[in-house]
Specification:
Aminopeptidase; Alpha-Beta Plaits; 19 strands; alpha+beta; 2 domains; 29% helix; 9 helices
Length: 387
């Protein structure tokens, strides 16, 4: 299955220094590329107080159903010390059959591969039903406030909601085709504060030490069984990330102790159910030891799942035809912009291997990039052929 030059597209994108939140010319490049093939392009710039302004791109070819959307990002993390790179991080040099550069796999490679596949599809002769669109943000590696969230709302307000969405995050672990993400765990962070009364360590009876109180709670919550997981998720996990009293002295009982922890949870829980669980545990320890307690919860993302069905099977078949592998349906890893898309339509994540993402000397093999473009081409063809 031929594809239009994904290597050239990727090199051009890498050479755009689009470190979050800078657009760096990457969206300009894609807009020119896609509009030249008949895509109707909209640049969507959003801002909020105390957050960076973000430029985004929505491009759509066709107006009818079914509507398949590719969601991705052209912003990249900083390269770090550029001297430590074997090849310049924004030069897109090719060595040993690999393209080197920041964003090569996360995720300009996927953007280039899908663009190549989509351009070939719309350029091929014959009638073509439905629509293909691109939702490309410049805010995925940043606060994720003025990017995909607001583009999706704009799409809803303007009658552009897709029937299905494919997110191009690098999903594969060892080999291209080994993994499709059909969901993600949720993320919920807590800050627990216990206030006491400062005093001299030699006279503990004159103080109210918050440290043992908070330590008892942390031991209790860290060993609590959250759930057993389910068919698509392993058991939810809790990681304590900080325990601090801000006390440089060894002979002073501190007035306050603060601990932080993060829960990565399955669809067995919601943020509300976990807040209730933590509150119950605090109440138990408060009954035992007293103290003045406060709880602050920060919701990062909800857990979600796209249940296996026709769309999942279509993508699995396309991957298997190209690679010979039947991909595992996974919910592992952190969060992605799929957590926003799932509120509008079924969403999957599939992209190349993730071995070098965010690393010095990030790279992708040209053969892998071309194979990814062919897989995307198969997905597009199957989708508009009805499966």
């Amino acid at each position: 299955m031929p594809t239009s030059k994904p290597v050239t597209i990727l090199q051009d994108l890498i050479r755009c220094r689009s470190v979050t939140p800078l657009e760096g010319g990457a969206l300009d490049y894609l807009e020119t590329l896609l509009s030249g093939a008949g895509f109707q392009c909209q640049r969507l710039k959003f801002s909020e107080p105390d957050t960076p302004d973000v430029d985004n791109l929505f491009a759509r070819w066709g107006t009818g159903a079914p509507h398949l959307c590719f969601a991705g990002h052209t912003d990249v993390v900083p390269p770090g010390d550029e001297v430590s790179w074997k090849y310049p991080p924004f030069a897109a040099e090719i060595h040993g059959g690999r393209i080197y550069g920041r964003g090569a796999t996360d995720m300009k490679g996927s953007v280039a591969a899908f663009a190549a596949a989509a351009l070939d599809y719309v350029a091929a002769p014959g009638a073509k039903p439905g629509s293909i669109s691109f939702l490309i943000t410049g805010d995925e590696e940043g606060p994720a406030i003025n990017g995909t969230v607001k583009v999706l709302q704009w799409m809803k307000d303007n009658g552009q909601v897709p029937d299905h969405c494919l997110v191009g995050e690098p999903s594969c672990v060892e080999k291209l085709g080994d993994t499709i993400k059909i969901g993600r765990r949720g993320s919920l962070s807590f800050t627990i504060t216990v206030d006491g009364r400062q005093g001299h360590a030699a006279y503990p009876h004159k103080a109210d030490n918050p440290v043992p109180k908070l330590a008892r709670f942390i031991d209790r919550i860290a060993n609590a069984k959250l759930d057993d997981g389910n068919a698509h998720f392993g058991p939810s996990t809790l990681a304590v990330t900080s325990f601090d009293v801000g006390n440089p002295a060894t002979n002073v009982i501190p007035a306050r102790a603060v601990a932080k922890f993060n829960i990565r949870f399955s669809t067995e829980h919601t943020p509300a159910s976990l807040k209730e669980l933590v509150q119950r545990q605090v109440d138990i320890v408060h009954q035992e030891v007293g103290g003045k307690w406060s709880i602050l919860a920060n919701e990062g993302a909800d857990a979600f799942i796209t249940e296996p069905g026709a769309f999942v099977g279509l993508v699995q078949d396309a991957v298997a035809e190209e690679t010979g592998l039947v991909p595992v349906l996974s919910t592992s890893g952190g969060t992605s912009d799929a957590r926003f898309v799932k509120d509008y339509c079924p969403v999957l994540e599939f992209g190349p291997t993730n071995a070098t993402i965010h690393q010095t000397d990030e790279h992708i093999a040209m053969d892998e990039l071309k194979a990814t473009a062919r897989i995307y081409g198969r997905i597009i063809a199957r989708y508009f052929a009805g499966g």
